[in-house]
Design brief:
- The protein is built from three helices and no strands.
- By secondary structure, the protein is mostly helical.
- Helix 1 runs antiparallel to helix 3 (46-71).
- It is globular, with a radius of gyration of 15 Å.
- The termini are far apart.
Length: 89
């Protein structure tokens, strides 16, 4: 176990940081292509590249936490909620 005992709280805090760095990087987390492009593109400026590296690390950490939760029988909520179906309006 990774030491995360309060999965809901840990995920909420992690997701808040991920959303922050996604905003700093100017990407939409619902768009996988934007995420991939951002993570592949190294920036010349330290601040921009630090945000990209932070986002990359946080996304990896979330995947590891999700895997741990699934192993224990928990179902992690999605990072980006799906859009409502037309019948749900």
């Amino acid at each position: 176990m990774s030491g995360f005992e309060h999965y809901d709280r840990e995920l909420a805090e992690l997701d808040k940081e991920i959303r922050h760095y996604a905003t700093v990087c100017g990407i939409d987390l619902a768009n996988r292509y934007e995420i991939d492009a951002c993570l592949r593109q190294h920036h010349d400026g330290w601040a921009a590249d630090k945000a990209r590296e932070s986002l990359h690390g946080l996304l990896i950490l979330r995947l590891k936490l999700e895997a741990e939760m699934l192993e224990l029988g928990f179902f992690p909520p999605p990072l980006v909620p799906s859009a409502p179906k037309p019948s749900e309006y």
